[in-house]
Amino acid sequence: MKANVMSEVGHYFNPEFINRIDETVVFHPLVSEQIQQIAAIQIQALSARLAERDMKLQVSKEALALISEAGFDPLFGARPLKRAIRQGIENPLAQYILAGKYTGNSVIKVELSNGEIVFS
User: Fold this and answer.
1) What is the pLDDT of residues 16-66, one digit of tens each?
2) pLDDT, tens digit (0-9, with 9 covering 90-100), for 94-110
3) CA distance 67 to 89
4) Which of 1-15, 27-41, 81-95 is most confident?
5) What phi, psi does 90 have (nearest 5°)?
6) Which CATH entry fits the domain spanning 32-119: 3.40.50.1000, 1.10.10.10, 1.20.1250.20, 1.10.8.60?
7) How far, in Å, CA of 26 to CA of 116, rounded?
8) In whole angstroms, what is the distance from residue 118 CA to residue 100 CA?
9) What SS3 class is residue 12?
């Protein structure tokens, strides 16, 4: 695969430039399981921020799978994932917190109901 990449690079750049490249790294496309692992790490960061306010976040596997699917783009990999988490969990949750639905010592459950993210 690396040889194919370098061959393609040769079509776009001069040999003088290519000779200055010390090392190349080829990334393989992410699969669904890896996207879910990345989403879980992002959710852990959100959980840590909520823990500072004495709130606990519990995200179901189904909700995590839906967010992972919404945040995955084969062309961009996991980049859209953070936006999907923000739109699907963080923004609605912030609205609930501002409205006073969740306060300190709350356990916030994020689940899937009828194909949509719900909070309880």
Assistant:
1) 998 888 888 877 888 888 999 999 999 999 999 999 999 999 999 999 999
2) 999 999 999 989 999 99
3) 9
4) 81-95
5) -60, -50
6) 1.10.8.60
7) 36
8) 17
9) coil
What are the domain boundaries of the chain?
32-119
Which residue intervals of the chain are DSSP H helices?
Answer: 2-10, 15-18, 32-51, 61-70, 79-85, 91-98
Nearest to 40 by CA among 89, 104, 87, 74: 89
CB 108 within 8 A of CB 119: yes
At residue 23, the 3 state secondary structure works out as coil
CA angle (94 as vertex; 88, 99 as ends), nearest 5: 130
Alpha carbon 107 to chain centroid distance? 22
Residue 85 contacts residue 42 (beta carbons within 8 Å): yes
Task: Give φ, ψ of 57 to 5 degrees.
Answer: -110, 130
25, 29, 27: which is closest to 77 by C-alpha? 29
